[in-house]
Amino acid sequence: MKLFERNRTRGSLILPVIPVRDTVLLPGMGIQMASEKPIGIQAVLEARDHAQNRLFFCHAKPEAPPDFKPEAVYEVGTIGQIIHLQQNREGHVRILVQGLERARIQQFTSLTIPLRAQIKPLEENLEITDEVAALMRLLREEFLEYARSAGGVPPKVKETVEQTDSPLVLFSSILHHLPLPTATKAALLALENPREYLSRLGEELKAEQEVLSLRQEITARVKRRMEQSQKEYVLQEQLKEIQRQLGKDVDDPSGLKDLEERLKAKVLPDEVRTKAERELDRLKKLQPLSPEAGVLRTYLEWIVDIPWTERTTDSKDIRRAQEILDEDHYDLVKVKERILEFIAVRQLSEEGRGPILCFVGPPGTGKTSLGRSLARALGRNFVRMSLGGVRDEAEIRGHRKTYVAALPGKIIQTMKKAGSINPVFLLDEIDKMSSDFRGDPASALLEVLDPEQNHAFVDHYLEVPYDLSHVMFVTTANSLHTIPYPLRDRMEIIEVSGYSDVEKFHIAVNHLIPRQQKENGLDWAAITFRREAVYHVIHHYTLESGVRELDRTIGRIMRKIATEVVEKKVHPEKEGRPFSKVITAKAVERYLGPPRIPRNTRPLEPRVGLAYGLAWTELGGRLLPVEAVSFEGRGDLILTGSLGDVMKESAFAGLSFLKAHARSFNLNDEVFSRRDIHIHVPEGAIPKDGPSAGITLTAAMLSVLTGIPPRHDVAITGEITLTGRILPVGGIKEKVLAAHRHDIPSVLLPKENEKDLADVPRKVRQKLSFVFVESLAEALAILFPEAQFTLRT
Question: Is 692 known to be catalytic?
């Protein structure tokens, strides 16, 4: 039996098989292909010699291995008729083949070369239903529209598509001319139902139309852009010719010559000059309108604009510097001393490194304005950079210039504003930085603030070292706790404490009142604040460590006075009608309303379970009342008021001390097992933490257990240990000022903190009495003077 003859009983054929990967043979369509592999060559020769030039084309699946595997080909393929065959000397073949009909592989009869398979032609459904007819009409219209847009479709194919009544011929003609993946064409070829394969072909045709439309839109956009560039180029050349006719300089329309002259005149370090000249050479070779030219031009302008060697001369007049500092700020002796020390060192050594100062203190104490006064005293330029909310490292180091709209970091940008390499550079709110997935800006500042490294600070945009060693960096913070230790270690910490009432009075009289009078247009008027009026504002309308709220309150009074001036139509230029005003305490209440803050917030009599502690926060010192109650229970200790872990541990340590010395306090051991103690620190919405409330917590618990109230005229601070020792704490000046603001006459302090009272203003020390203790037994004996405790001190 010849290979190509049909098996009459099964309706099948046995033909040589050729697997193909990159093309799909469709019924009625012709393709050319070449084969250099034995599997293809032998199949073609077998078809020529034994199958009347017929062979079966099966299509490999996308994941098929290089070597033939029966399971790696699609079952449905196409029977092809070889129209023309050519074989060269090497044995390679090239054929022109025509697709005849679709067939399905039933089984491979030979898996050795040449491959043979028993195949069965598909029974084509020639019935044209209304749905199939509608699909054919829709496909004709869409393909003809696609052919008009895409081009390259032969007229004969269009004619066939328009005239054929066969669903299969229409399907093959359209599919053959669509640029679809081989796998997609092979999958469509396997569909037997005309409605199904026409519908799927319509979906693919519509998708190709959308791709073609998008491609044409992009092409048109690029073409318009190129035409615009060409147009601009022609106009530029015409403009040059016009300028040449007018006798103007046309050699530097883009400003490149001017930039080059500025670069030559600029004094630059050798490494920077080499980099700049290399970038300038690149810029000269680029078209003026190219995007890269804009990037390079901006880069070179930054190089030219940044100060590299320009510097100001430091003032060495210590007396003049002292006068400037005294004019701008009241008190702040330690800060002023440090600045004067720097000036003195500069007189003796010109090459000394600039200090890195960190002013730490509550808001409104003049930390930021100190930097400006420092610059004025030194005769340097002053620049400020706010770090509040900075969370991206690129804001410090800049972006690499390969990014769109890249710029140097804020350090370099601020140095450009300074105009000199030795300004006073204020880094404001250094404790308000945070980090996220974009990097840690605090780590980037390590290089900026390290004298060993900042002489070669590298900004990502500049890509060359920049010398920051001549800069006098000044930072400000409200708290040191949020500043990473490596960064804190690079700075000289100077505490700017809160102000006493006396200091606030002098600041108001010498600075705030004159400034507010000028800002509100009243500098021509005679406005006098009585002494009691200023203290009335301080005591009853502000409760702060700094003077920011005091400044705003004085401003409110000035605005009220300005309103009176306008209503009375008093004009500074009119003679004979001078405006004068004396502000008394009653006038303050008339302008500001009833007092908002009572002067004394402590009870008039002692209360059981109530003790007054002193706390230090970022806003300064504050009074910390601690309340305790006791009730029947199981010996639990309940702590509320948003207390932190350290403060909770202090409470447990105090309770353990009381349990260990219960008999000394005349307490029954069963009291601790049958009664619960609840400690609450008011203003529960505000988080509180720290060890300095240890004595206060212990006194409140002892009070509720014994029923004896502690002294209400003593403010307490100090850390405790389980053995009853009292350890020193920080923030003594702020805490003492808080006690003074609340009119508490006595302050109980750890013995080791006695030396810290030197920082407290003398007038405040004179108004308070201080008790220093070394043990908890001492402290409790002072707080409970009438109790008969037998605990030894």
Answer: yes
